[in-house]
Every structure is written in C-alpha cells, then in structure tokens.
Specification:
164 residues; alpha/beta; 29% helix; 30% strand; globular
Amino acid sequence: MDAAEAEALREQLGTGRDRLALDLGCGAGELTRSLVRLGYRTTGIDCAPSAVATARATNPDLEIQLFDFEAGDLSQLPHSAFAAITCRLVYRWIDDKPAFLSRIRGLLAPGGTLWVVTSVHDPAQGPPGLWDTPAADIELLTTGWSSAHVSKLDPSFHCYALRP
C-alpha cells in the first residue's frame, strides 16, 4: 500500500473514532493495520490459512481470523455490523459477486462505507491482465449505492468508496 492509496483511504473513510471495521481478504494484514492506525477497531479475515498465519506472526496485536466470507456463517464474525468494510485486491477473484455484495450490504452499519481496491483494465495499456476486473464487474460493484466515489491511483489501479 503506497502513500497515495493510504491518503485516499484516509480521505474516504476518515478517522475511525473506535468504530468497527472488517478487512476482507486481509492477507498479511497491511490494510488491517492501516485501519487500526486510522482509529478503527478492526478485524481482518482471510480464507487462506497461510495468509492468516503470516498476518498473525507479523502483527500479533491485530485481530485476524481464518474465515471464508463467501461461504462462512456471518454470525460467526465478531460483530453483526461494521462502519467500514474493506476489500483490497480480492473483488476480482470472487465467484458470485452479487451474493458477495449482498452479504456486505447486510453487514454495513447505517452510514457505513465499503472500500474496494482493484485493478481495472485500461485499454491504453494493451490487452487486459488476468488480475484486471472486467468492466461488467465494475458496473455491478458500483450500481445501487447512494454514493460511489472512485480514486484513480493510476490508469488501472482504482479505489472505490461505496455508501448505501
């Protein structure tokens, strides 16, 4: 996570003021740590045991859980609603995006924000990469929110702040 992405996160989510946050697909815990620094009480989750082990080893003070967000029982999460839900470099790989987004909407507290960071195909860069989120999936991601703000960190790396 570079300085531009950290600044976009701070601008769009603001200070946590001890509100709850959920970091989906937390990997090694970098974004989880950034949310804690902003003042959020953050839980990081990942479905990969190796990622959870790395995050716990490198960030023993963070709350990190092994959890499959797509298939897991949401009542097993530590809270039933979150002021911020983040998803960095994960959305592209979700199989059932409508179900995924529905689950997120059900967990967002009133006034909450979904923060998604993903690579988007830029035709000027040539053919799409395997990691690029197709335009139809971006349309699905950004439709139906009362507010959708995009921070374009470069031609193909975008951050979306979505509010119900």
